[in-house]
Design a protein that fits this description.
Number of strands: 0
Number of domains: 1
CATH class: Mainly Alpha
CATH architecture: Orthogonal Bundle
Structural class: mainly alpha
Distance between the termini: 10 Å
CATH topology: Helix Hairpins
Helix content: over 70%
Length: 89
């Protein structure tokens, strides 16, 4: 059963995750724009090594965004389901 305090704490955590997700997306956009600018002028072996590293970093960022979105959705479902049950008592 979900208490009012638990519900409040869960909502606070969800809000923090929402802010974290926005920050991740902002940082990812910033880094992608910087990468595009650098990629246009950077050449040679070092550029190829950096590109491979960037691709891995980008995949990790995207994975983090997706996992955060999944967690937010899961918490919203728990909150909604549990609060619905709690409210009907």
């Amino acid at each position: 059963m979900m208490t009012e305090q638990f519900k409040s704490d869960l909502e606070t955590y969800q809000a923090a995750l929402d802010q974290h997700l926005l920050r991740l997306k902002d940082e990812l956009d910033f880094l992608e724009n910087r990468w595009r600018s650098l990629n246009e002028i950077y050449e040679g072996d070092a550029a190829e090594d950096f590109a491979r590293t960037w691709i891995k970093t980008l995949a990790n960022f995207q994975d983090s965004v997706e996992q955060t979105q999944t967690l937010i959705k899961f918490l919203e479902e728990i909150s909604h389901d549990q609060f619905s049950r709690f409210s009907s008592l």
